[in-house]
């Protein structure tokens, strides 16, 4: 589900947005991290979509093998997780295409965090 949403609505051309290790160059993270808001379910989608939106198009994928057990997705907790992921993904789409929140021109207050040694979004 996340991959279809990522391709159709966010323009991310990867096979799997959720599983696996993500490795980025420092310059990508310096541009992307200060813009991020999602803290939970669609964090991977937001990183990939913002990086793509800012022009970082080269994504390399390595295959992973998982032994899925789908039983947990059929009870209330699993369905709740899917629902929350969808809501977070829709919020990323809204900020990306309607609010243009991730644009450089957007006047948000970013501050320099000494511990992280980078600019961060204060959310104000």
Descriptive report:
With 124 residues, this protein is mostly helical. The protein has one domain (2-60, 71-121). It contains four helices and two strands; from the N terminus they run H-H-H-H-E-E. A hairpin with a 4-residue loop joins strand 1 and strand 2 (118-121). Helix 1 (2-10) packs parallel to helix 4 (76-99) and helix 3 (43-53) packs parallel to helix 4.
Q: Characterize the biggest β-sheet.
A: 2 strands, antiparallel
| Strand ordering within the main sheet | 1-2
- Rounded to an integer in angstroms, the radius of gyration calculated over CA atoms is 16 Å
Coarse shape: globular
Question: Order of SSEs, N→C?
Answer: HHHHEE
Portion of residues within helices: 40-55%
* Low-confidence blocks of residues: none
The number of helical segments is 4
Percentage of residues in strands: 5-15%
**Structural class determined from secondary elements:** mainly alpha
Average pLDDT value? 79
Domain unit count: 1
Distance between the termini: 32 Å
DSSP summary, beta strand count: 2
């Amino acid at each position: 589900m996340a991959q279809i949403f990522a391709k159709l609505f966010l323009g991310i051309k990867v096979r799997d947005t959720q599983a696996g290790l993500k490795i980025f160059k420092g310059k990508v993270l310096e541009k992307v991290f200060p813009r991020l808001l999602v803290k939970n379910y669609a964090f991977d989608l937001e990183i990939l979509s913002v990086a793509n939106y800012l022009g970082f198009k080269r994504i390399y994928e390595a295959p992973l093998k998982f032994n899925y057990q789908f039983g947990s997705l059929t009870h209330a907790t699993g369905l709740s997780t899917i629902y929350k992921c969808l809501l977070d993904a829709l919020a990323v789409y809204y900020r990306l295409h309607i609010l243009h929140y991730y644009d450089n021109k957007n006047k948000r207050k970013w501050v320099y965090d000494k511990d992280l040694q980078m600019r961060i979004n204060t959310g104000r």
